[in-house]
Amino acid sequence: MNSRNNGNTAGQSTAERMQRKLRRRYAAERRFKLYGLVSILLALMFMLFLFIGIFGKGYTAFQQTQIRLTVDLASVEFPASVEDIDGFYAVDYAGLIKNALYALFPEASSRRDRRALYQLISPGAVYVLRDRIMASPEMIGKAADVWLPANDDVDMFVKGNFNTGETSTGRLDDQQAAWIRVLRENGRLEKHFNTTFFTASDSREPELAGIRGALVGSFFTLLVTLLLSFPIGVGAAIYLEEFAPRNRWTDLIEVNVNNLAAVPSIVFGLLGLAVFINFFGVPRSAPVAGGFVLTLMTLPTIIISSRAVIKAVPPSIREAALGVGASKVQMVFHHVVPQALPGMLTGTIIGMGQALGETAPLLMIGMVAFIVDIPGSILDPATVLPVQIFLWADSPERAFMERTAAAIMVLLAFLVVMNATAVYLRKRYEKKW
Description:
Elements (H helix, E strand, L loop, with lengths): L1 H57 L4 E10 L12 H5 L3 H12 L6 H8 L6 H11 L7 E7 L2 H7 L15 H12 L3 E5 L2 H4 L12 H32 L4 H13 L4 H13 L9 H26 L2 H9 L4 H29 L3 H5 L20 H9 L4 H32 L4
Antiparallel strand pairs: 1-2, 1-3
């Protein structure tokens, strides 16, 4: 009787211990899920703070303050034909702008007041006025209303980024602020969509600076990178996975490919400087040099991802192709590669997105230069969007800060589009085996 009770007691205690262990295990799983959820929420929160900070600083760059002046185009002599470029360039456009300003504020009679009044207009307004007149020669001989870009200090003041008390840093004084208020009340000062930001290249003046040159440079650089990295990377992956013999040399190659994916990007920049520029004489600061360097950096990503998707193709497809008489080359290129191509494209797009955001390797090959002209080919001097952001972030003018944030927004938009394209290709064409 006692032994039976002892057995029941032992059985109950064992069951209780098992229940306690199960409860602890389930509690540990719940805690693990909670930790994961908290980590995801924290990551999303920090990302949200980052995007809010960038958007809050950069959205104002998509608007530019402009001043409407009534310019007397009958007071100067213009060339008879628009074909006379030199004649149009010789016209005193600065004098026309000054006279239009002085007509609005005749009380600015002293030299100091007139100099302060003329500072409301961007130094690049003369080029804007010249281009407007050459584009619309019917304006000549009349008094025409023309919207001209305001100075960057005026733009910052209108957007509320600083007050008039910052005279110690060369900002606007009270008299200039009063003129701005008069222009606004008379409908001569407005904020317009900043087309210059998307149509112009870099400039020393913030209100005239744009990202078009950097975008074109990024396009040419990525074009060279894609044309080189995709066929070389895919070809290397096909060879290593389907044709290469299994020996110590192929093992060494695989280890090196995997290690190259973790090499800091600036090392590729040093390699490109030593090999492509100093040894082969590739033009410095040109998209072709940047494309070569980014190809070296992108190849490991493409090779690793392509090998993974080739390996994922079921062996039955290979065996069926060989069973009906196909050669090994026909089996690979007619059956395996088409099945793996969506994954290859996905890996390539991800690698290209990584290349789009790189800065360090391109700094080493000279793509940090101040480039005003928009590149016309892969051999012309150029910069890229991340380097342009780097240059603007290092500028002391406050107007460049908002343009830096706006350029980051554009870069993030391109990266999101590229990653979304990769996800779409994977979801749309990927096959489940």
